[in-house]
Amino acid sequence: MHIPDGYLGPQTYITTYGAFVFFAAKALKKIKEKLDLKYIPYVAMASAFSFLIMMFNVPIPGGTTGHAVGSAIVALIVGWEAAVIAVSVALIIQAIVFADGGITAIGANCFNMAVVMPYVAWHVFKWIKGNSTSEKRYYIAAFIAEYVSLNIAALLTAIMFGIQPIIANENGVPLYSPYPLSVAIVAMMSEHLLLFGLIEGFVTAGVLKYFVNNKKDIIESLKQESV
């Protein structure tokens, strides 16, 4: 899902940089207001976890990659605002140090995987969990929250690719990503709907189960006052 350099035109990557910076600033403000110092090590570990699992990239047609992200479980454990910062740090390090994702595309990659994905995962989980205290419901909610959020992030990535031939071309020749929506969406969504979403869904449920059994008191998404 990492977008490389040269696939997005300035109309897209400048806009997504702006959107990412806006939401990251709001998330950072919220963290300063409500995050207890005891959570800092967990946020750092969450960033490391996300960084690690995103390094296992599988190239797919359409100019991008498929992989797990970790944003959903990070959001469920430390809150979606903290997940924005944790996953963004991982993505920025990957781009700058390992060339995994483009420098110009940092805003787009962070917006898709570090802003949209944790936000969607958090709210889908809270909606499915409701007021239930059933652990089985927690795990089902975690699986669905990850599956939905990962695929929405993948869809946004595909749309960013697919609109490039429309908004950035010269005499009908694409200047950036050459793949139309019909190719980009099929390539991205087939892999994430049928493989990566399912795999990461089970991982997300499994990690949540571990924390429920061992550190339930720190799980932000299970606190009734969380919204």
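The above is record 1. Record 2 follows with the same two-line structure.
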Amino acid sequence: MTRLVLIGALLLGLLVPRVEARDIKIATLAPDGSAWMVAMREAAEKVEQGSEGRLRFKFYPAGVMGSDATVLRKIRLGQLQGAALTGSEASLVESNAGIYSLPFLLRDEAELEVLRKQIDPRLVERFAAAGMQLLSINNVGFAYLMSTQPIRSSDDLRGAKVWVPQNDRIAEVTFRSGGVSPTSLPLGDVFTSLQTGLVDTVANTWSGAIGLQWHTRLKYAVDLPLTMVMGFVMIDGKVFERIDAADRELMLRSFAEASQQTDERFRKDNVGAQAALLRQGLQLLTISEDDAMHWRAIGAQAAAELSRAGTVDPALLAEVEAVLAQHRGDAAPKAD
């Protein structure tokens, strides 16, 4: 009897399909050790443990797999399964990835949190239609203009050598609308370009400037938030669909939890990084209210132009503006 049971168990084991381990290789331009990389590794560890090794992650940070366009091409070829990209980079997948990063769109991070409750699901749907499954969306923080020479006015900015990320249509349209002729370069070329003088003005978060070592070349920063930097972690939709349903749910849950922790880490990192940069001698410049109003108007003009061109979906932009208008109305001080 025992022998028959053992034979039956053996035959049953042969009939049940074996779930093979799946390797998920994710590339990013983010430096190793950054808040983003730390959170992704933590999420990956939870998934690997929870799936009992059926899902395994390998990360390629700091641009070792090439530019954003190169990484996306490698995903299409099956050499990589995913990527962690900023909004400008992710716009190569879905043009509306930069919707949160429209210049001067947001006044503070509280507005972003209100907006994300309604717009994040829209972006998940749009990325899925483009063949990518979003695992998380992250608030990296506000970017500020930083330079090797003082920028105290619009005229100073028009005379500067301004860098914009390659393929960042939003940044390019914004600066050109303001009379600036920017230089488009891959992220990996910026440090060398600051050294050689090809560019002298960049935009980044406080922690980003330190993480990429740009702060060693920069002397000034304009105390006016330019744009919100967002991060998108994604994997190939076809790869995602081939994963067992329970493991897919585990992956989404783990990366969502890590995303919340990442946002808080970025906030703390940016506060600490700004303080460190000021201690090291970076000068924070205040521009006039007239110049600030001028550049906010340029931002609105750029958003309208991007909407007309279809770079940003007009319906999605209208939804964003409606959510913000309602929030600002609700948050406005009430008269006695």
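The CA atoms of residues 111 and 330 lie 12 Å apart.
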